[in-house]
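haha ok so turns out i had the wrong file open the whole time. this is the CORRECT one, sorry everyone. sequence first:
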Amino acid sequence: MEKPKAKTLEVIIPGYRMHSQMFNNLLDGIKESDALTRIENKTNHFTWMVGNLVNCRYWMAGIVGIEEKDPNEALFKDGKALDENAEYPSLDVLKKSGIRSRQFCLKNYCLLKRLN
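then structure:
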């Protein structure tokens, strides 16, 4: 891949690639039945971690002007703390949202690359 001309893309593209790899690795082998378990009730559960990662993907997309918003933003925006009383989406829903964010980012990256 050629080097992006815009400084923003020089930062976002590697970060987004790292997020894509981490997102895929995070979901590998995790069962929905285990996703809401917290270690000693002190950690965020796995569903929150995945949702936060998806929210970060939407945030990175926003940096380069992509206006689509995370459908679960109210639960995760700005690293919002885990709410034990909130109803979190399933891993499947979060995975689809993460894939969707990747698809529109890749499409828009190609458009941005042509503009630079």
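The chain has a mean pLDDT of 80.
again sry for the mixup
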